Each structure stands twice: as structure tokens, then as C-alpha cells.
Amino acid sequence: MERLLPHYQFSEQHRLLTQASPAGLMDAVLQPGVSEDPWARRFIQLRELPDRLRGALGGTSRLQAKPPFGIDNFTLLGREGDAEIALGLAGRFWQADYGQRPLADAQAFAAFGEPGSAKLLLQFSTRPDADGGTWLHTETRVFCTDRDAVRRFTPYWYLIRPVSGLIRRRLLARVRDAALAAA
Predict the structure, then answer these.
(1) SS3 readout for 55-89
(2) Given a cut of 90, is residue 70 above it in pLDDT?
(3) Which residues does residue 125 pair with via DSSP β-bridges, in sequence order?
């Protein structure tokens, strides 16, 4: 995380203690379906509703032919054993269609600097607990490439942050549950 996005203007962190193994937790992060939370899906549908409705009514919609936003929109940037996984996005997240820009890999993420845009790093990590459990931690960092992007992203961040935090906490629980079920 420090190598891919050491400088950022916005961040959010969450964690939970579990008895699942670090390997099981990191494997569960990438397991298909783990991130598919029906509750989170409802919030994403609500966020996308205006643009999709505009398209359904004959207007212009960049989301109309696309599946709902989800973990598949992220690019896997890397995994360091059983300690850390990093996923990334780039674009103009405040736009109705997210303004997402394609990223091929971690090198493309690190190099991304398109004016008026932002890049987001979602990291999952594990740390041992003194009592034998494992801390599962997630951190989201956002770097805006210029003042215009900061100005546009700031209200969006404060609007979505409470829901984003709840989604992250629910995601941590889903990862924990998947890791424990696989064990």
C-alpha cells in the first residue's frame, strides 16, 4: 500500500478480529461471490438509478449496457503472501457512470495521473493478535490528481462515506465467514 499510494487526501479504515487463518482470509478476499452482499447491492442500485432510469426513458446513459458496479470493476494490483492484497480503481467516481479508466496492472495504477481524476486503493491485510486470533483490516485510500478533482471528489466522499464504511464492515464479515467456512 505504501509503495502503490503513499500520498492521498482521503482514507478510511476498518478491522475485525477473527479466528480464521491469514491464508484463509486472503484467499477469501479473492473468492468469487464473497463481495456480493445483497445489502450493498441495493445501495449501488440506488446510486446508479438516475443514470439507468435516464437510459430506460430514452436518454443518454453510460451505465445502461453495463452490469452494476462491483468488485469486478477493481484491478488486482498484487498480493503479498498471506499478509496483504491490493485492488485499485481510477476515474471520476463522482460522475454518474463513475468515469472509470481502465488499469492493466499495478504499474499502470502507480503511473496514472490523468488531470481531474482520482485513484482509489482498496487494501486488505492480516495481522496476528496476541491471543492467537487474526486481525483482518481494510483500508481505502483516494488520491486526487489535482485541485479540481479534490473539489469534485470531496462532497462525493462525504456523501458516500457512511455507506462505504458500512459496506466495508459487511465485506470484512463476509470474508471472515467465507474463510471460516472453507476451513
Answers:
(1) HHCCCCCCCCCCCCCCHHHCEEEEEECCCEEEEEE
(2) no
(3) 84, 137
CB 147 within 8 A of CB 31: no
pLDDT over threshold 90, residue 68:
no
Share of the chain above pLDDT 70, in %: 100
Least Cα distance to 76 among 41, 115, 29, 38 occurs for: 29
Tell the CATH topology of 10-52+71-182.
Answer: Alpha-D-Glucose-1,6-Bisphosphate; Chain A, domain 4 (3.30.530)
The label of the residue with cell 477469501 reads 28
Q: What pLDDT does residue 139 have?
A: 97
By C-alpha distance, which of 13, 7, 9 is closest to 123? 13
Q: Which residue has the cell 479473492?
A: 30
CA distances from 34 to 7, 54, 173 (A): 29, 31, 10
| 62 pLDDT higher than 90 | no
Q: Which residues are 143's β-sheet partners?
A: 119
CA 110 to chain centre: 16
Q: Report pLDDT digits (tens) over 126-166.
A: 999 999 999 999 999 999 999 999 999 999 999 999 999 99
- Position 72 pLDDT exceeds 90: no
Instruction: Please enumerate in sequence order all residues whose Cβ is within 8 A of that of 64, keeping only pairs 6 or more positions apart, or say none.
Output: 51, 52, 55, 56
